[in-house]
Structures are given as structure tokens and as C-alpha cells.
């Protein structure tokens, strides 16, 4: 076992930066050190870990197998230390100018974000909320880019490898214009797959649950149009023969949907479950706790307005 009293944790910070930059000079510039200081730190780390860690190539420094082996644990350890230190610093919403990043499933962003923005402006007028697409990873070390998600989870399963709280589970409906040529027919899985769809991109929803359910039946839907925002879909349905799906509660939240025909999605196992997800390494930090509590409060308040 390494005696931590003799171990300089700054060496691990330099190690993670070299893994990212693959260049001594770039790391030196980023950390405000001289290249020789970074090289000396790497030399000390090589002795302590008994491994070369990096070797030079024409494209820059390449990590050894040992370096690739330990990087995830090192990043997780540094993240835990950072969170533990940050947790001792009191977050005051009214005084903070912090930047939070979130991913929000597009189906619910239309009714959630306006109320969330009003609440944030009232409590923390100087902070910034950066809404990122789901194409940015939020698995494992990717959580350094995202503070929280409101995401779709297939069926009634719970998300894995993250902390989560279920916000809502809702049935799914198929939408089309009332005078659609197939409006009078029973909605079956085969008919649903055959009709031309307008659907949200995976970057907007964060899930492929519908396509997975159809594939399990040997079916594939006809995606005539893929868009990145729900906002344009209802108007398309009113003027074309396209169909789309939505959470049932959205019928009460978007007045345009009152003019459309809604039928149950003929994929019984599919439920739109919306979960708030976050990195367990961040949950004790006071600013992060405020963010999650605010999301939950706003979401619950919006849902109560449409419940009978």
C-alpha cells in the first residue's frame, strides 16, 4: 500500500491533464507551470507507480496499459475529493453566479423550463443554466459536463449507475389529425409501424425505447421526418398525414393537441418514465442539492396543475 503521507496529490492532477492533452507543453501552459516542472512531476509519478505511464509517438504522448487502467479510478477519486471540499462551502442562491448544466427530455421541456426559469430568476438571478443535448455523454466520467438530467427511462425500469428520482410515469398515445386516412382503423403495432412518423431525435429524448420495442416484434417504423424539437410537431400533424407519439399528460399541457385524435400506443410495455438523474459524487454539495430540489419542486407543481 502507498503511504499517502508521502504522496503528492498534485501529481494525480498533472497525470489526468496529460491523459487529456497528451502533451507536456500543453499541460504546462494550462496549469501555469514550466515544461520542465511537468516533466519532473511525471518522473516522480513514474517512480511511485512503477510504470512508464506514457511513451512518445509522432502524434504525442500515448498512455501505457497501466495508465489506461487507473485513469478512471484517479478521476473518480479526485472528483470525490473536490465534492467533499465543495460541500463545506455554503451555496447562497441569491449571491451565486455559478453555471449549472442540464439535459432535459424534449417532450417535457416546453412545460417545465418556463416555470423553472421563473423560479431560478426569483431565487438565483445571477446563475446560468446551460441546457445541453443528450448527444453529450452523461455516463461515468461524462458527468463532469452535466449536473443533472431529466430523461426518459424505458418502461418502469430505474436508471443504473446514477442516483435518480422518478418524477412521473405516463402512458403513451399516438397522435394524428382527425381526418387522417387511417383514423378510423384500430391502432395496432403493425399499422403504427407502417404509417409515416415525425419523431424526435435521440439527442432530444435520450432514448430509443420505441424502436427497441418494435424491433422486438420484428417491426421497424417509417420515420419520414426526424426533428430536434417537439414544438413544431403538433402543427405538422394538423396539416399532413404524419403521426407522432407523446405522453398522455401532454394532451392537457399543449392546447394544440386538443385538435388531434389520440389513440393508445399499441406497445403495452412502453411507458414514458421521466427521471431526475445526477452523479452520486455531487449529491452532497450544497449548490447541487439546491438545483435538484428546485427541479423536483417545479416539476411537482406543474404536474399538480393538470391532475384531476
Automatic annotation (TrEMBL):
Q: Which residues cross the membrane?
A: none
Which GO molecular function terms does the record list? Answer: DNA binding; DNA-binding transcription factor activity
InterPro entries annotated for this entry?
A: LysR-type_TF (IPR050389), LysR_HTH_N (IPR000847), LysR_subst-bd (IPR005119), WH-like_DNA-bd_sf (IPR036388), WH_DNA-bd_sf (IPR036390), YidZ_PBP2 (IPR037402)
Q: Which UniProt keywords apply?
A: DNA-binding, Transcription, Transcription regulation
Specify whether Transcription regulation is a keyword of the entry: yes
Q: What sequence ranges are listed for the domain HTH lysR-type?
A: 7-64
Source domain of life is Bacteria
Family affiliation: Belongs to the LysR transcriptional regulatory family.
Name this polypeptide is given: DNA-binding transcriptional regulator, LysR family
Organism the protein comes from: Marinobacter gudaonensis
Amino acid at each position: 500500500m502507498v503511504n499517502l503521507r508521502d504522496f503528492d496529490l498534485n501529481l494525480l492532477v498533472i497525470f489526468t491533464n496529460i491523459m487529456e492533452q497528451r502533451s507536456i507543453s500543453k499541460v504546462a501552459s494550462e496549469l501555469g507551470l514550466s515544461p520542465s516542472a511537468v516533466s519532473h512531476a511525471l518522473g516522480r509519478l513514474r517512480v511511485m507507480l512503477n510504470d512508464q505511464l506514457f511513451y512518445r509517438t509522432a502524434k504525442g504522448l500515448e498512455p501505457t496499459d497501466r495508465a489506461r487502467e487507473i485513469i478512471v479510478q484517479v478521476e473518480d477519486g479526485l472528483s470525490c475529493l473536490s465534492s467533499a471540499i465543495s460541500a463545506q462551502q455554503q451555496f447562497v442562491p441569491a449571491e451565486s453566479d455559478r453555471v449549472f448544466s442540464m439535459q432535459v427530455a424534449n417532450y417535457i421541456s416546453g412545460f417545465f423550463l418556463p416555470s423553472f426559469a421563473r423560479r431560478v430568476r426569483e431565487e438565483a438571478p445571477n446563475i446560468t443554466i446551460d441546457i445541453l443535448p443528450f448527444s453529450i455523454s452523461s455516463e461515468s466520467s461524462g458527468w463532469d459536463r452535466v449536473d443533472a438530467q431529466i430523461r426518459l427511462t424505458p418502461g418502469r425500469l430505474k436508471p443504473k449507475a446514477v442516483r435518480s428520482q422518478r418524477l412521473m410515469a405516463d402512458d403513451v398515445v399516438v397522435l394524428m389529425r382527425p381526418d387522417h386516412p387511417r383514423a378510423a382503423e384500430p391502432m395496432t403495432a403493425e399499422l403504427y409501424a407502417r404509417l409515416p412518423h415525425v419523431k424526435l431525435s435521440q439527442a432530444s429524448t435520450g432514448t430509443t425505447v420505441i424502436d427497441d420495442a418494435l424491433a422486438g416484434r420484428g417491426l421497424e417504423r417509417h420515420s419520414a421526418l426526424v426533428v430536434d424539437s417537439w414544438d413544431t410537431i403538433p402543427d405538422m400533424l394538423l396539416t399532413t398525414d404524419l403521426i407522432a407519439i407523446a405522453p398522455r399528460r401532454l394532451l392537457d399541457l399543449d392546447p394544440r393537441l386538443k385538435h388531434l385524435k389520440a389513440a393508445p400506443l399499441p406497445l403495452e410495455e412502453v411507458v414514458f418514465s421521466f427521471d431526475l438523474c445526477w452523479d452520486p459524487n455531487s449529491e452532497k454539495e450544497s449548490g447541487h442539492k439546491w438545483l435538484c430540489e428546485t427541479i423536483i419542486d417545479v416539476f411537482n407543481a406543474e404536474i399538480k396543475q393538470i391532475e384531476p
